Amino acid sequence: MTVNVNDISKAYLKLKKIVSRTPLIQNLNLSALYDAHVVLKREDLQVVRSYKVRGAYNKISSLSKEELDRGIVCASAGNHAQGVAYSCNKLGVQGVIFMPNTTPSQKEKQVRMFGKEFIEIHNTGDTFDAANAVAIDYAKENNMTFIHPFDDLKVIEGQGTVGLEILEDIDRKIDYLLVPVGGGGLISGILSYFKELSPETKVIGIEPEGAPSMKNSMEKGVNTTLESIDSFVDGAAVKRVGDITFEITRKLVDDMITVPEGSICSTILKMYNEEAIVVEPAGALTISALGFLKEKIKGKCVVCIVSGSNNDITRTEEIKERSLLYEGLKHYFIIRFPQRAGALMDFLQNVLGPNDDIAHFEYSKKNSREQGPALIGIELQNRNDFDGLIERMKKNNVMYEYLNTNHDLLQYIL
Fold it and tell me: pTM, whole model, 2 decimals?
């Protein structure tokens, strides 16, 4: 099963006056870093700051008057909801949108702004999948049309227009095209277009390590629901990809890889600090993947789709924390200090290096004990300083438990 190239072209004509034709720009820093011609497709500059509006509008505008009059329903962690809300506003259609309770507040505010009086929002469940199940039931009970965020041919055709614009705007042969993957709508549309018109291009799907639903399904040979996921990359964290998108992707994709959430966080910070580009976690997926493909892409032309910029500023501390942990620059310990005067001073003078910084400290004195446990976070300037820190702890007989490798305990404490 594939999407017809002509249908993607028709979708593009329908969308021309509704969406922005986002720029395709070479990034000089990334090109120099990876010794490649790295080009960014800037869907973060889209009218709703993500590509999702393409599929949403193409689907909703294809409905009959009777279907539109009954109203529509969707579920989304944010970007699909914004696309649906914008489309409802433009078409004068009433919509009900179900969003997970974990959706960043910035995304929910944007949905209300784009939809205005044409939409109402219901928060339910802790994941997209939970909200999606409620939305499907609601649509059936109220005889409304459900707008799937990815597993629908009209949605896939709309998302495929990203690929059409890339091929029309590029001035050279594309060796690699990196596509972020959540439910699979974007990559299905792009694969359908590229494998017909640019078959020599290797298309690689990129998923977050904590939600590898497409990669896992492809390895098993059947669309499979993950038992649990890390929902941090909320725009691409789904337990189950679409049945249609799975069939298209497994047939046409050249490779699927995953990227650690910590690496994604480092990319978000790097893009903001060095490029003044704001990307959401899902939008950073393809750029993060460059480091894991650096040998393959050397000397090649690589297009990365930057899928969205709907990032909530309140998440900055979490993003920085995950980045520091991933880069090996922040380390947490439970240290059992002797309960005597000067114990902490000994630690500061004899264990900490000249560039080490205590970034977190929690301690409660226990009068009935010889030792008192303290939770300490130490931030390093160089990840290579870690071995020296551990050596000095051992030399000074410091009793410690290292927490970075105990993810469950670390999440509970922090």
Answer: 0.92
pLDDT tens profile 245-265: 999 999 999 999 999 999 999
SS3 379: strand
What is the rounded average pLDDT of the residues 385-407? 93
Exposed, middle or buried: residue 333 (CB in 10 Å: 0-12, 13-18, 19+)?
buried
Rounded distance between C-alpha atoms, residue 162 and residue 181, angstroms:
14
Task: Answer yes or no: is pLDDT of 168 > 80.
Answer: yes
- Rounded CA-CA distance 127/125 in Å is 6
pLDDT over 90 for what percent of the chain?
85
pLDDT score at 360: 92
Is 52 an annotated catalytic residue?
A: yes
Catalytic residue among 52, 154, 215, 330: 52
**How confident is the model over 11-53, as pLDDT tens digits?**
999 999 999 999 999 999 999 999 999 999 999 999 999 999 9
Q: How many CB atoms lie within 10 A of CB 247?
A: 15
Q: Where are the domains of the chain?
A: 5-51+153-321, 52-146, 328-413
Query: For domain 5-51+153-321, which CATH number applies: 3.40.50.1100, 1.10.260.40, 3.30.160.270, 1.10.4200.10?
Result: 3.40.50.1100
pLDDT at 413 over 70: no
Task: Confirm whether 307 is a catalytic residue.
Answer: yes
pLDDT in tens, 354-384: 999 999 998 876 665 667 789 999 999 999 9
Single out the residue of 322, 336, 317 nearest to residue 407, CA to CA: 322
52-146 under CATH 3.40.50.300, yes or no: no
Query: Which candidate in 307, 309, 323, 330 is catalytic?
Result: 307
Query: For the chain, what is the total number of helices (H) and then of strands (E)?
Result: 18, 14
Closest CA to 331 of 375, 394, 372, 363: 375
Tell me: domain 328-413, CATH 3.40.50.150, correct? no
Tokens 């970034």: give the residue. 359
Orientation angle between helical segments 243-252 and 185-197, nearest 10 degrees: 40
- Residue 130, H or E segment: helix 128-141
